[in-house]
Specification:
This protein is an all-alpha fold and 313 residues long. The protein folds into two domains: 67 residues, no CATH class; 218 residues, no CATH class. The protein is built from twelve helices and no strands. It is elongated and about 75 Å long. It starts with a helix and ends with a helix. It comes from Sphingobacterium sp. (strain 21). Keywords: Membrane, Transmembrane, Transmembrane helix. InterPro entries: SpoIIM-like.
Length: 313
């Protein structure tokens, strides 16, 4: 059957499932079975078409609805991180990729600018921070800034600030995603110039082992928050078959779920920065193990696991 005929025969049913809401478990289950049958057919005959992508998204939403309408609150809580959030990561994998590319590009620009302008690091990081770090380097404790504050107070300040930044990255997406890109630019340029600064001091490798103990989770979460903002902006700019308001509501809902899902990651990153990073003389194997474990977790949970999960629904 040609794809156009397949769409024509089923389009009314698909649209009705999107427009007519129901919370009845039997009806949701029946709809889910029908959509997955259509999705299986589309994957077989039109594997790379927009129809297949559309049905995959519709099946994911129906699957989420089945979990949402379960009575067990504990199950609902666990299913959010086990199923719902990973499916959103897969559904919006393009926005995740764009956010990562934007951030890496701006990080490179920050490092390149610092390499070609001696005053750039001070412009971005501020004279006070640079002077303090230079003093710490002279004292033989280049990362002493992580030891100066009370760890509990430091944890609260860092966690709240990172959550605030992630919320801003999401909310600025309403400005047609431009605001989110600007925030990614600011943070990327700051990271690039910051990291380049330590390399010029001969502390590049050491800075990676110390700073990225917490930075792996923290920076990854900021990129994911940027993706949430791009989802919001994209829903406003490109509503597809939905009305612009309906599309915006869907984008806002899915983007907000990502922000909520990032809160535990920001808390763990703040704990690491406040209570672990301050031990700058820890063994190489320990710091590298924390760094690698954090990186592998992000890759698995955001990329590998969602892709495997999408094949099961």
């Amino acid at each position: 059957m040609r794809e156009a005929l397949f769409v024509k025969q089923n389009n009314a049913k698909w649209e009705s499932y999107e427009k007519i809401k129901t919370t009845h478990p039997d009806e949701l289950a029946a709809r889910f079975i029908e959509i997955t049958d259509d999705l299986a057919y589309a994957k077989t005959f039109y594997p790379k078409s927009k129809t297949t992508a559309y049905l995959n998204g519709l099946a994911a939403r129906l699957h989420q609805s089945l979990y949402i309408n379960k009575k067990e609150k504990a199950s609902r809580f666990l299913s959010f991180w086990k199923t719902e959030l990973p499916i959103i990561f897969f559904q919006y994998r393009n926005q995740l990729a764009y956010s990562a590319v934007f951030f890496l590009l701006f990080t490179f620009i920050g490092a390149f600018s610092a390499a070609n302008d001696e005053t750039f690091v001070r412009l971005v990081l501020g004279d006070d921070y640079v002077n303090m770090t230079n003093t710490n380097i002279e004292k033989g404790d280049p990362f002493g800034v992580y030891k100066q504050s009370n760890p509990l107070l430091m944890f609260l300040m860092i966690a709240l600030n990172n959550i605030r930044v992630s919320c801003m990255a999401f909310l600025l997406g309403i400005l047609c995603a431009v605001g989110t890109v600007v925030l990614l630019m600011y943070n990327g340029i700051m990271l690039g110039s910051f990291q380049y600064y330590f390399f010029t001091k001969g502390l590049g490798f050491e800075s990676v082992l110390v700073i990225w103990i917490h930075g792996t989770l923290e920076i990854s979460a900021i990129v994911l928050a940027g993706a949430a903002g791009l989802i919001l902006g994209n829903s406003l700019l490109f509503p597809k078959t939905y009305s612009r308001l309906t599309s915006l509501k869907r984008g806002a809902k899915d983007g907000l779920k990502i922000i909520v899902g990032l809160i535990p990651i920001f808390i763990i990153a703040a704990l690491l920065e406040s209570f672990v990073t301050r031990h700058t003389a820890m063994p190489f194997w320990l710091s590298s193990a924390i760094l690698i474990a954090s990186f592998l977790f992000i890759v698995w949970y955001v990329v590998i696991y969602p892709r495997k999960l999408s094949k099961l629904i």
